[in-house]
Structures are given as C-alpha cells and as structure tokens.
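Checklist before submission:
- one chain only
- standard amino acids only
- sequence pasted in full

Submission:
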Amino acid sequence: MKPEDPLARSTNLYERGYTRLLLGEKEESLALLRESLAEAEASLDPVAQASAHRGLLEWHLRLGREGEAQRHKEAAIRFFLKAGDRKGAEEMDGLA
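Returned file contents:
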C-alpha cells in the first residue's frame, strides 16, 4: 500500500530505489529513483527534491554517465541550499 502523501511516497521510493541500486538492480533502481523525484517535486519539499537528485546522481555515477550525474549534482546542491542545508550541499562535492 502506497502512502497518500507525496513526501512520504518520495521517501519510500527513494529508499527502495537506493536499495535496488546497492543490490545492482540498475533498471528497477532507476525507475524507482525517477518516481521518487516526481513525488518530491509534487511535495514541494526541497530536502526531498535534493535527496531524490542525490540518488539519481549516485545512480549515474555508478554507470559512468558523468553528464547526467553533473546535472543532478547541481540540482541537489540548489535544493539543499534552498532548504538551508549547507552541509548537505557541501557533501555533493565529494560525490562528483
């Protein structure tokens, strides 16, 4: 059963997608992380949006897709800063 709140759905999808990424299930993890981003955007929560972009950043890095990784890195930084989370934004520098 899916939660009704887009923020809760985004969090749940992110966790499932990231777990699938760690398990090496590339396509399923990508689908879940993309869904997480869509729900985060619907929630209007900048931390959820930053986290979803971070998950996609890590997915693209693992698969050697530097251009897409950079795009998600920039978005994650932007949303972390919008949320007032300077530490979250700084952590992005160590990823790509």
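Reviewer check: The mean pLDDT is 94.
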